[in-house]
Predict the structure.
Amino acid sequence: MKPVRAAARAMLGAIFVVSGARIVLNPDSKVPAAKRVTDKVAPMIERMDPRLPSDARALVQLKAGADVAAGLLLATGRLTRPAAVVLAAGLVPTTFAGHPFWAYPKEERAQHETHFLKNLGLLGGLLLAAADTQGKPGLKYRTSHALDRSQRSVSRAVDRSTRSARRAVRTAKRDAKIAAASAAVARRLPG
């Protein structure tokens, strides 16, 4: 299954690397479409930190750079889950900004609807890549089972301690009876 995963990740990451590199080199082609989203996001960015870029061109280049980096990580099999999350998070606003098929006239609607659905398919692949643990148990499973193991370990330690304490009490009672009997015998002996 590993070669299939590697090939699928490379194919999925390739579109983001290629399109991201094109946009980094020529962001002006995507700025008008991106303004639908960036005009709404820019005031929030400026409130968070005025030093961050908030103009549409810079945000388009920043998103394209993130696509190239995350696409390369995904394609090479390094940090695949975080890379897939970054790509998926960036794909959602891109899809709504670039392909709002419902806003186009009938002549253009089919083309944008196809691109919208293609992006939904890519998003599905990215979500699968983000959830893929490569056959290993996920963090939730490992955490819950580690907790169960530690609880069982503590429970066994308590049980062993309880048994040891009972044994010690029985031994002490027996030793006390023996000592008491020895003392009674010693008192009866003439001496």
